[in-house]
Amino acid sequence: MIFTYNILKNVIDTGKPIVINDQSQIKKMDSDQIDAITFISELRNERDYYAFLELNPGKGIVFYSDGNTFDGFTVFETPLSEFYFEVNTEKGVIDIEDGVGNQTDFLDLFTGPVIEDLTKKYRNATDEEIIQSNEYQMADRYISVYLGYSDGDEQKVNLTLLKFAMTIYIDQNESK
Fold first, then answer.
1. C-alpha to C-alpha distance for 28 and 11, rounded to whole angstroms
2. Which end of the chain is more exposed for a tag (fewer CB within 10 A), N or C?
3. Can you say whether residue 45 is alpha, beta or left, with left for phi > 0 and alpha for psi between -120 and 50 degrees?
4. Per-residue pLDDT at 105
């Protein structure tokens, strides 16, 4: 079963989950600061996380994490209108095709303890406060500069990644 960005954006906008079957669903992540969804597989007891950032109509970024913060994050550079993933409904897993844009893995960017500290300190912070953090400076160095974004886009990318990491931490550690 294929899910395009437009379908996933509808989940974000409405807050209404897509129940694929009794073992899996796609739902909006609990954040009003970023556009993000979670694919939940009860069968495999796993979650996959996606955050979406549109820089302009032809240029977007999809952040991905399997929820294991020790594995880092993956960044897909693609127009959001072209992003999709396929769910194998029998196995309860997501298959991402190679055609979703440029993929870059940042395997050791943040570890679990760093994300925990970041969340405790900055979960209710302003963007300006987050920008002053060491984690922001590290994201800037390893993500935005590496990918070659300009100042305005660079800030959006860094802030979205950090808010995405905090939202994952909250989902895994504080959700009911």
1. 6
2. C
3. left
4. 80
Which residue has 């960005």 as its token pair?
Answer: 5
Phi-psi sector, 137: left (phi>0), alpha (psi -120 to 50), beta: alpha
Q: Give the single-character DSSP code of 161.
A: H
Yes or no: say if 66 and 105 are a contact pair by the CB < 8 Å rule: no
Contact 166, 115 (CB under 8 A): yes
Give the residue-averaged pLDDT of 139-145.
Answer: 81
Question: Per-residue pLDDT for 28 more than 90?
Answer: yes
Close Cβ partners of 7 (under 8 Å, ≥ 6 residues apart): 18
Distances (CA, A) of 28 to 67, 79, 159, 166, 171: 15, 20, 19, 15, 11
CB neighbour burial string for 122-152, b if at least 16 within 10 angstroms, e if fewer? beeeebeebeebebbeebbebbbeebebeee
Question: Which amino acid is present at 155?
Answer: Q
**What's the distance, CA 24 to chain centroid?**
18
> Residue 148 in 3-state DSSP?
coil
